[in-house]
Amino acid sequence: MLEVIFFGAIFLIAYAYLGYPATVYVLSRLFPRAVRRATITPRVSFIIAAHNEERDIAAKLDNTLALDYPADRLEIIVASDCSSDGTEEIVRGYADRGVRLFRQEERHGKTVAQRRAVRMASGEILVFADATTRNAPDALRKLVRAFADPEVGCVAGQLMYVDGETSAVGQGCRSYWDYEKFIKASESRLNSLIGVSGCLYAVRRSHFAQLTQDMIDDFVIATEMHLAGLRTVYEPDAVAMEDTNKRARDEFRMRVRVIEQTLTALHRYRAVLNPWQHGWFAFQLLGHKALRARASIT
Known about the structure:
eight-stranded mixed beta sheet, globular
């Protein structure tokens, strides 16, 4: 019995990290699903989540204001999750440039702050970003062009990790993320992503999901789009850059938090794991998220 458990665990890990990526890549080449892209400029609300980000928020706002996108089609909102440092004062200093501040009076987390900030947004496309990332000048134009396809409800940008100090932890983060991007490209080509990077993604306002406080937007957004009959696709040309973690402890804590939130979300949306009802999406969810989380625990 112990041998069965041991070899079963080995198979689980091997399939989650090698078998699934190979399978979804081959299937995406055999059964590709095209995305219609066009040069469009819908009205965009760019929502930046922030909690005590006085070190980075000014650079983030300067970067966002410099994006190559029509100024009259872009509004910028900072969703402050009860910041207690100088973040909000810095944001108010950008009011004359059209930047708006939403302050959450009690700290309830990023998901709730974003959800409440949406109420003051006017854009037909909602873009969500972190305060610590920088975007390429054309990132927003590239991000929204897939919304020319009526079957697309969410678009995920490409996160690129930058490791200026070439630390061992940073190099590991970059290598792992290159592997994840390979999987995302294959999933998007086959059908739909099952998760996005919270650093940069966009959704149609008409299908914005009202997530609960304990949900992780990176995973749940794609599932909500699937339940609405829409796709979540990957746009590698829409680039966001972020510094890697330098300390192993910080990276480990982040990975544990992601696994915990993923398992919570999988339980909440367990009905979607039925391949008879949800087809390719269930196959991808089982292969990527469910097995990956279990393999990590193993």
